Amino acid sequence: MMIALLAFLASAGCYPRPLTLRQAEQLVLAAPNIRASVTQRGARPFFEYIERLPKGWHFDINSATSCATANPCSTLLGHYSVGRDGEVIDLDSGEEGMRVSSSAMRRLLRRFRESRC
């Protein structure tokens, strides 16, 4: 899907520029696990840590909402990397992480790409 979109844009004479940090933040906040935490638990995500990498960014995302119980719990929502090409990796899934995508993320990415042509 991503390759087809890039090929179409290139054939139209449009070469999308890499994502900005702000766009990468929007994209990672649209990840299914983050969205589920917001809708199901009322989480209020914030970026506890952002690291700029040569090919994108690394994000540690926490919730500003405290735990609902007195039992020990974590407000960590996840660790993600976002490439300048829009690829989002959930670093907490599998040994090497796992690519994450959703229809909302694809729409966002398409909008980012189209606005830069």
Describe the protein in words:
The protein has a five-stranded antiparallel sheet, with helices on one face. It has one domain (20-66, 73-115). It has four helices and five strands; from the N terminus they run αααβββββα. Strand 1 and strand 2 form a beta hairpin. The model has no long low-confidence stretch (mean pLDDT 86). Helix 2 (21-29) packs antiparallel against helix 4 (103-115). Helices cover 36% and strands 26% of the residues. It has 117 residues and is of the alpha+beta class. It has helices at 2-11, 21-29, 32-41, 103-115; strands spanning 45-53, 56-63, 76-83, 88-90, 98-100.
Arrangement of strands in the largest sheet: 1-2-3-4-5
Q: Give the overall pLDDT as a whole number.
A: 86
Proportion in β-strands: 25-35%
Number of helices: 4
Report on the biggest sheet. Answer: 5 strands, antiparallel
Helical fraction: 25-40%
Tell how many strands the DSSP assignment holds: 5
Number of domains: 1
Provide the low-confidence segments as ranges.
none
What structural category arises from helix and sheet content? alpha+beta
**Order of SSEs:** HHHEEEEEH
Radius of gyration: 16 Å
User: What is the straight-line distance between the termini?
Assistant: 19 Å
Globally, the shape reads: elongated
Question: What is the fold's blueprint, element by element?
Answer:
Blueprint: H1 2-11, H2 21-29, H3 32-41, E1 45-53, E2 56-63, E3 76-83, E4 88-90, E5 98-100, H4 103-115
Antiparallel strand pairs: 1-2, 2-3, 3-4, 4-5
Helix pairs in contact: 2-4
